[in-house]
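Annex B. Sample input.
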Amino acid sequence: MKYNETFSKDLLEWFHQNKRQMPWRETNDPYKIWLSEVMLQQTQVNTVRSYYTRFIERFPDIDTLAETSIEEVAKYWEGLGYYSRVRNFHEAIREVQANYNSKVPDDPKAFLSLKGVGPYTQGAVMSIAFNHQLPAVDGNVYRVFARLDNDYFDISSTKARKHFEEKVMAVIPDDAGDFNEALMELGATVCTPKAPLCMFCPVQSHCLSFEENNQLNLPVKLKKVKKTVQQFKVLIIHKDDKIIIEKRPDAGLLASMWQFPMFEIDKHVSDIEEQMDISLYIEDTPFVKTKHQFTHLEWQMEVYTAYTKDEVSSAYQLISPENKNKYNFPVSMTKIFDYYIQNNL
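Annex B, continued. Sample output.
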């Protein structure tokens, strides 16, 4: 460790002069700060900006959001992905309305108890909104401190969070919120993964890996996550002038969102008909093959046009193509729908 009493000062001075302008940095409202942190998880800043602005325009305060159905709320999240985030946030906001008089609790333990709030979100929101001296350790902070200390600690280890939180707590100043934001900003704009701008780094004099020209070897991440591939047959089934859709289960991946009926790629037509309780004519060849990437999962999809004259059960919904925006589809299905409408209707 090479820090001295000027480390925090150098970092904060740089941050105050160079921080990017973002709408959530123009408010002290803990609800809006919390929303931004939830949106920014696994999502780039430039993508979040427009979503955040649109979301706040529709749901400007806790009561408005809490009193709106998750189906409508999720429409304002559509395209951001990782939909469990919005479901958890919505549930947590309802907890705040019911138990904390519609005010985000300023007690860190109470805030941590809310649905979907983990150590990072706790540290970020509690420090930025209420200036609690808590660390907010994300991938950017792992990288910054691994390089500062020339530290080969495996960031994929279950002990990594505690390891790096201790490093932050050793130097966090009274201005905890700005300090945490400054660390994240440094990692996002200067201490980047592949091409760090070391000559512009405000804490270069404190950095052991720069001194040893070792910054590109850090941080260390030993584990490699294997991606699971799933193959599906997706059916756009016409009944008269409408299309059949179904709702996904209430829990799990893309919970409660709408999709076209999906089946394992090798499922026989007779089995599909039995499952849906209708007779089907399915085109012989798919009109498009596509795929969608999740973090640890890839969907490979063959999309077929199909037809039925039978009545469908209540497990399915019949919609007109022009009404598709009334339903909360995941990105994968929206792309299929748009492609199909452009090329077939």
